[in-house]
Amino acid sequence: MDQSTALLVYSISKTLSLEAPEDLTRNLIPAYDIDEHSRSERLPIVLEAYAKQYRKDFTLFLELRAKELVSGGRMIVSLVGRCSDAIATKFSYILEIVAQILCVMVSEGVIDKEKFDSFYGLLYEPSSEELREIIQEEGSFSIREMRAHDLELI
């Protein structure tokens, strides 16, 4: 594209990660575990790896979008995240349910344990502060307005 777009609108409903976090795959650390206690103990390492991967992927997303916009153009991005700037301490509610279902499928032999251990699908939910930092560090965009809405699933 030859910088002819004045407005881009993106709604990102899942993680931008195109690959599993290298920190996990290189060290053979599974994102999930059949044992809930082990899954809970490993969670900080897993979330840190996904945060790092998200930062890398979202930075690339911004760089590529900047090439599509004319100078002074605008971009609106809608995505799933979390309001709190605190480090995520648990899987999102939906992902915890998915993990439990996958664990049952492994225990019943529907899914091979080895494949389960190599599954790295995760919806990383960045905080609004993380997004602000990534956007500012990448440098192609300024933030005119950022809104976060707390949508708790029960």
UniProtKB/TrEMBL annotation:
What SUPFAM superfamilies does the database record attribute to this sequence? S-adenosyl-L-methionine-dependent methyltransferases (SSF53335)
Q: Which GO terms describe its molecular function?
A: metal ion binding; methyltransferase activity
Q: Name one Pfam family in it.
A: Methyltransf_7
Keywords annotated in UniProt: Magnesium, Metal-binding
Record InterPro entries: MeTrfase_7, MeTrfase_capping, SAM-dependent_MTases_sf
Q: What is this protein called?
A: Jasmonate O-methyltransferase
UniProt organism field: Aegilops tauschii subsp. strangulata
**Upper taxonomic lineage:** Eukaryota, Viridiplantae, Streptophyta, Embryophyta, Tracheophyta
